[in-house]
Amino acid sequence: MQDDDLRGKVLEAFYHHRHERLVNVDNVLKGLDIPSDRKGSILRQLEEQGLIENLSKPINELGDGRITAKGRGVVEEKIRQARAVGPMRERIRERLTEYRAEALESIVTAEARTKSSHAGRGTLNSSMRYLAINEDNESGFAKCMDRSADFIRQLAGSSALDYADELRDAANKLKQDIIARMDRQNEGALPGRAGVEIGNRLEAALDKIIKRKVEDFEWNIGGKDMTGGTTQNTVNIINSNIPMPSCKSLNLGRTPSRRRRLKAWSE
Hints:
By secondary structure, the chain is mainly alpha-helical. The protein folds into 2 domains: 3-82, Arc Repressor Mutant, subunit A (Orthogonal Bundle); 86-218, no CATH class. The protein is 67% helix and 4% strand. The protein has 10 helices and 3 strands; from the N terminus they run αβααββααααααα. It has helices spanning 3-15, 25-29, 36-48, 69-84, 86-121, 127-156, 164-186, 194-218, 230-238, 258-266, and strands spanning 23-24, 52-56, 64-67. A 3-stranded antiparallel sheet has the order 1-3-2. Strand 2 and strand 3 (64-67) form a beta hairpin. Helix 1 (3-15) crosses helix 3 (36-48), helix 6 runs antiparallel to helix 7 (164-186) and helix 7 (164-186) packs antiparallel against helix 8.
């Protein structure tokens, strides 16, 4: 862990004791994952920056200290910035909740079509119908994740990666809804453990979709280029109908033949 991260953790720990006149530094740092040989260095850095005061330093102890007004300001500004992005996260959660409900509705519609198709062929109670139902759920699930990822990209722009956890959490909630619903439907409908096996197969498929879609989102696969589009623009120019300039128009001239080069060298 870098010093910047460690300083942030220590300063926040001091902030929790901001109402105390003095606090034992060993108690402040208790529970923080900071190597013992780096604690003194981190404290000195914070003190040099005027963020804390380490007032007494007994031998083999870190002594007593407190956060300064400047240190409180740094932490409170960080808190303010975190709250500033709060509405964005809430909006994403609200929209993804709506998408989950709509996905479940579309899956129910797709299942109804599948059941009707198998009823017409006399295979309504066959394993083929249940496997087809699994495919309906997988398809609807994947479309919902794609829709959710697109919304986050459009809303958050270059900060979209900060909300990858929202995409994952929403997907896991939808998976739980789907699995619970399928368990209720399959219970007692198929002999032996067939219903359990079909449910396990569906759950594994949904887990695979979540993993792939979140990875694609984090690598911006299938999304817009957030870096300014230089690569995409280059591809567009190469594949466009813009005429390329000729060698003559570039005034490159003709390359001397090998015989002329040898003659010039011999002279």
